[in-house]
Design the sequence.
């Protein structure tokens, strides 16, 4: 769906999404990394359990929530990709342990 | 079923009457509940809404249907609140039936937590005074120790030493309530007239009220002021003394989580869709409702985390402030003008708790043209007892 601008090349970073390797570039947000790798959806909504993906790309819509390194409900568009990040789909509302 | 978020475009456009049976100034929860309850008795009802600059307490509140702490100094207010809580299931069922919107009324009881023995002592004294009043309605309440409270709230923090429990309390989703009332008004043929801040109000010799707005004059036989903080200046035009003032409350909203909290606390609740609200601050800070501040928010957050330590890990996603509409004693004001018969005022700071009583009991009285004994305690004459 999206094509990278080759002129905007940064050094490669290695992440995983749902346990599978994903290569993006330094300077990408996690949301950009997911979109560039073809993942339009990265979560299932908390109420209706329907798929959603990055939309506003500026921290407003909360549709890009993912779990990053075990921490739930991270905004992928507001999180800069880092080497070795483990990103997982956010499945519905996060749990909290009483 | 129609998706509930979409305006009812199928409602037929109709000519507006020259004179409405009733005009309600204020389209918040009080005005909307009254219009909803008056419509069955009156054919032509209009609701005037000021606009987006309005203070909009109805969009900033916490959504409790709360009884247990109300009425010290006026047992009639305790009775009225309890009455409304008991009428609430009927209102919720009607709104669901008429609009398809579930306002998520839940009445599992409520808790008032105390974080140290000084708070407990003060609260118990308060509750004993409240419930010791001669005309106080009787309903169960109990001082719980930590263990008893923890049985109701999984993960309750050890800092919560005690809590007052009562089975009469609960919650709704206040934004869904607001939406459901307005959708129901539209379907019932009530004219919702936005961007109509009322300015001059006059009563003609024929008894008909003329309300000037930037988009023309609206006329009606019955006038209801349900304009929140604006009831004070508007009331002055029709012989109604409405000494209300703003009291600011700030709210924190936390991210959605799986449901954990099944019983509301007066300071903390989890919404039907999983988000959390933290509240119950009170500031006398004038009309400023665009300010939130760390001193208050930090205290709210700290108390929430002490109450439910699992929340320390849950992110705050929003905060806002809104203005309660407070009378000098904190109780509602319902009154018909003596100098301008047919003009009524209805104002309170509990538009959610009292929505059922407003829609199902107060509104029919106003539609019939006279307030009855059940609400006679709530006139503003109580603020003018002759001083000794």
Sequence:
């Amino acid at each position: 769906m999206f094509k990278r601008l080759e002129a905007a090349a940064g050094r490669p970073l290695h992440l995983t999404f749902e346990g599978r390797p994903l290569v993006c570039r330094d300077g990408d947000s996690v949301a950009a990394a997911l979109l560039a790798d073809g993942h339009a959806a990265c979560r299932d909504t908390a109420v209706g359990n329907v798929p959603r993906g990055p939309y506003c790309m500026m921290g407003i819509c909360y549709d890009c929530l993912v779990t990053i390194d075990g921490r739930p409900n991270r905004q992928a568009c507001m999180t800069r990709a880092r080497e070795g990040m483990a990103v997982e789909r956010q499945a519905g509302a996060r749990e909290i342990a009483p | 079923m129609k998706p509930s978020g979409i305006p009812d475009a199928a409602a037929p456009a109709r000519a507006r009457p020259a004179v409405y049976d009733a005009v309600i100034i204020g389209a918040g929860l009080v005005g909307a509940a009254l219009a909803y309850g008056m419509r069955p008795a009156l054919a032509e009802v209009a609701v005037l809404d000021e606009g987006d600059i309005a203070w909009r307490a109805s969009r900033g509140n916490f959504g409790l249907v709360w009884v247990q702490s109300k009425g010290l100094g006026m047992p009639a207010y305790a009775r009225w609140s309890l009455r409304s809580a008991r009428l609430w299931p009927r209102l919720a069922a009607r709104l669901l039936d008429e609009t398809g919107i579930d306002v998520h009324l839940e009445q599992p009881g409520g808790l008032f937590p105390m974080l140290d023995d000084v708070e407990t002592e003060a609260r118990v004294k308060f509750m004993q005074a409240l419930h010791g009043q001669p005309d106080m309605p009787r309903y169960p309440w109990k001082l719980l120790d930590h263990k008893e409270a923890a049985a109701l709230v999984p993960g309750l923090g050890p800092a919560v030493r005690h809590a007052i429990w009562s089975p009469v309390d609960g919650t709704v989703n206040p934004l869904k309530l607001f939406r459901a009332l307005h959708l129901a008004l539209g379907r019932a043929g009530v004219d919702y007239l936005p961007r109509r801040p009322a300015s001059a109000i006059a009563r003609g010799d024929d008894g008909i009220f003329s309300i000037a707005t930037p988009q023309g004059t609206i006329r009606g036989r019955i006038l209801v002021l349900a304009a929140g903080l604006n009831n004070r200046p508007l009331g002055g035009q029709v012989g109604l003394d409405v000494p209300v003032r703003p009291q600011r409350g700030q709210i924190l909203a936390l991210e959605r989580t799986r449901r954990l909290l099944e019983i509301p606390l007066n300071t903390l609740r989890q919404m039907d869709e999983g988000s959390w609200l933290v509240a119950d601050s009170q500031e006398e800070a004038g009309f400023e409702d665009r300010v939130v501040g760390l001193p208050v928010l930090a205290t709210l957050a700290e108390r929430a985390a002490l109450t439910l330590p699992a929340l320390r890990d849950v992110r705050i996603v929003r905060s806002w402030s809104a203005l309660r509409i407070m009378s000098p004693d904190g109780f509602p004001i319902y009154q018909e003008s003596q100098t301008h018969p047919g003009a009524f005022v209805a104002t309170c700071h509990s538009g959610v708790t009292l929505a059922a009583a407003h829609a199902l009991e107060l509104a029919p009285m106003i539609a019939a043209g006279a307030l009855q004994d059940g609400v006679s305690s709530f006139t503003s004459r109580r603020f003018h007892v002759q001083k000794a």
In short: The CA atoms of residues 41 and 84 of chain A lie 21 Å apart. The mean pLDDT of chain A is 94. Chain A touches chain B at residues 46-47, 62, 73, 92-98 (CB under 8 Å). Chain A has one helix and seven strands.
